[in-house]
């Protein structure tokens, strides 16, 4: 049987064991209901089914990845199945039959059934529940209230007519069977309310049906008429078959649930205890109305009072838990508020229109704005006009994504006029009813941004003159390549006899002269042009959107500005320089710089001051392949 493989028919899995159990159920139960079957045959079939159930439980327990708690449960109910099988075998081989008039046979069989039900109930009762102690106490009170209601129902069945039956044997057996059935019901109710069970959903349904049918047959064992014996036999066989179906369903469903457990989120509260209160009150009123305060009536009174008391205790415990929960929530809220109030980071909550709904006290430190005055105003209304576009762009981006977040560095001005930088994280929470807005967290990174800007400036500028260095010049060139093609010019400048200034007057004077040269170069070019120091006494000027005549005019303006004397450390000095000019539109910057370098050395060699690198082909025509330098007078 362990090797039976489910067959597929029409895309569905057909398990041969379940199919066989279904066929046996139809044939056997149908035969019991439609015809008189000898008691020995009924006992033999039931014993075989209970033995099959125990074997199927053995298959379930053999699963390797099964949870220990589930494995213990299935071992217990397998033992219960064996006890039930023994009961049927005793009635079969002991020569006992079970007509209603043979009470000794019924008592013996019922005692065996009671032992099996007790084992089954213990298996459910012993299943551990993982939950806090107070939650476990509430669960026990809920289960107790429900069980008292079921005890009242059993009392009603055990005491027919309102008084104790004359046949004490009948009473003892019925009470014992009822108690055992209630024990099994206790375990089932506990598992139902707790939200965890040692079986899969399909197996749980079959087990519950088997317990209900079996408990009904036991409770009515001594109360049915002789003509109803066939119905009793059918119910007992149906109970055994349902247990076998449950074991097989557990085995099959553990393919998807290897642990064999069923876990669901336990509800915050259960309505079953309140239904128990209503049911017990109805039973009490009906009993008193019909029979008055008889023996059964007094049992109903005690049971109804007990249920109400248990529910009141459970409610009192729930109120105490709620009070503790509210205290913890108030404590957490106070702690959270304290954290927000004293946090250095700014927290804002704005709606879809950008209106501030909450602002933490850090707004006063970051922008110099009182948080109370910010609530109800647009976020952009707290900023200067030149700071608004970046904030509007961030809000538009985060609103475009219903569940997205946007991280940006934003610039803002403090009320005192100082510039501040903030690392902002905007998160869209408009879809959450409890928030219904955009949460913006801003961390002040002004010092980090200032340090970052300082490091970048040091990496891209000459330390002495403050002019851009070769790295920043290359960045400028890369930016120009993305713009529309236009003519550019490169002026390479080298000071004449600068070494003699350092040798005769000292490096300090030479440095001051370089600073003065840098200042005059800045004044001689347009804002769109770039002046950079390559090193030593070499400077380069990058002119954009110019012509050869314009580049030469700029070079002459530079020479004239440098020729003006300057007082440096008590010395009257004037700088002389040689400038090489290279002009092109589709030439690489490195090529232009190389051409300007050639022209500059030519100007230094012939003393002309300015030399233009000319590209010619043939006679007097510009070309990009051949060229030379020419003085510009």
Automatic annotation (TrEMBL):
Domain PAC residue range list: 406-457
* Residue ranges occupied by any GGDEF domain in the UniProt entry: 486-616
Mind telling me which Gene3D superfamilies this protein's record contains? Answer: 3.30.70.270, PAS domain
The protein's UniProt keywords, in alphabetical order, are: Membrane, Transmembrane, Transmembrane helix
Q: Which InterPro entries match?
A: Biofilm_reg_signaling, GGDEF_dom, Nucleotide_cyclase, PAS, PAS-assoc_C, PAS-like_dom_sf, PAS_4, Rev_trsase/Diguanyl_cyclase
TM spans, by residue? Answer: 17-38, 44-61, 73-94, 106-127, 139-157, 169-193, 205-222
- PROSITE patterns from the entry? GGDEF, PAC, PAS
PAS domain ranges (all copies): 332-402
- Under which name does UniProt file this protein? PAS domain S-box-containing protein/diguanylate cyclase (GGDEF)-like protein
Taxonomically, what lineage is the organism? Bacteria, Bacillati, Actinomycetota, Actinomycetes, Micromonosporales
